[in-house]
Design the sequence.
């Protein structure tokens, strides 16, 4: 890829030292093999990174949703929001961070491609008939089941290398959060997900073993769906049925296990306020901190140089507070001219 104009320097006998050459050595990452369009300038680097993440998602297929930093555009529709604190501070962004972001974006993009939100909607009538505590337990199993299913889909290509990195960081944080020494549903979920790649050293607590057998059977059934040629709607219906059937067996096996975190993972999109939910109905703990407004505008302007959306460039000239500015895009439509 070509070097960004802003990062080109003029060589001379008294040329200033390139700050990029003096940055600390970082742990090499997979993305370091292909991501060469980097810069030490904040807006340029963050724009280049976002462009790279969008290209990665483009290789997954359609319906991935927008990918942007929190605090950028307010367009409607599903969006994968990247928290600014995950990338800001040191430039170029370390390859290890980029690897994690690629894994996160791939996972969230597959969530949209595989219509996971539709699975939750199919399960809503079933959840309405559950007691509050069983609804929490069931939702934890469904959420982890969907995470495993999406990771299995990513493992069919090179993208699985990145989702494993993101999964490893998440599981490490989850492990530190757990209250060790006390059997809980949360720890059962941890051993289920972690055990698929890193089996637990030594025997697991006896109260987990019956439930884990059922969960491993569920994992195998989810993996078998990838070989089928059914459409996305059919796959959603089959996954929902697998979760319901698994719960019929698991409900008794996890009856005596307490729950550490009783927050619901999903609730109908009509419930809750905009401060508590995303557009797809998933609950979230907190809203990502927005990127500084001026920096977000600079990134949008740089991205507009090679995208179809010209609106950021127009606003930069007409004024960001000018309400008369309407969305404007490039297009390649043409009509033959007849003499």
Sequence:
């Amino acid at each position: 890829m070509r070097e960004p104009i802003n990062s080109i320097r003029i060589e001379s006998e008294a040329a200033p030292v390139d700050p990029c050459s003096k940055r600390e050595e970082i742990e090499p990452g997979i993305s370091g093999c292909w991501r060469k369009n980097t810069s030490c300038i904040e807006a340029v680097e963050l724009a280049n990174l976002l462009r790279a993440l969008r290209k990665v998602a483009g290789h997954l297929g359609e319906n991935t949703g927008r990918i942007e930093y929190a605090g950028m555009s307010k367009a409607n529709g599903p969006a994968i929001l990247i928290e600014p604190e995950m990338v800001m501070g040191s430039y170029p962004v370390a390859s290890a961070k980029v690897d994690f972001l690629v894994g996160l974006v791939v996972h969230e993009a597959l969530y949209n491609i595989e219509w996971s939100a539709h699975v939750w909607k199919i399960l809503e009538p079933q959840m309405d008939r559950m007691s509050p505590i069983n609804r929490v337990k069931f939702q934890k199993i469904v959420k982890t089941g969907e995470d495993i299913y999406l990771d299995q889909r990513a493992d069919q290509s090179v993208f699985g290398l990145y989702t494993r990195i993101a999964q490893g960081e998440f599981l490490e944080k989850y492990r530190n959060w757990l209250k060790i020494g006390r059997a809980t549903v949360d720890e059962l979920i941890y051993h289920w997900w972690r055990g698929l790649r890193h089996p637990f050293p030594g025997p697991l607590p006896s109260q987990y073993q019956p439930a884990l057998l059922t969960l491993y059977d569920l994992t195998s059934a989810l993996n078998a769906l990838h070989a089928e040629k059914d459409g996305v709607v059919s796959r959603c219906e089959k996954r929902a049925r697998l979760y319901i059937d698994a719960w019929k067996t698991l409900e008794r096996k996890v009856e005596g296990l307490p729950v550490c975190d009783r927050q619901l993972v999903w609730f109908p999109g009509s419930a809750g306020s905009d401060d508590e939910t995303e557009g797809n109905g998933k609950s979230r703990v907190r809203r990502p901190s927005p990127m500084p407004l001026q920096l977000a505008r600079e990134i949008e302007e740089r991205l507009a140089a090679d995208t179809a959306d010209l609106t950021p460039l127009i606003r930069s000239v007409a004024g960001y507070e000018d309400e008369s500015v309407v969305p404007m895009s490039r297009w390649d439509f043409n009509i033959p001219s007849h003499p």
User: Anything to note?
Assistant: Confidence is low (pLDDT under 50) at residues 1-26, 270-280. Strands lie at 66-69, 79-82. The CA atoms of residues 43 and 298 lie 6 Å apart.
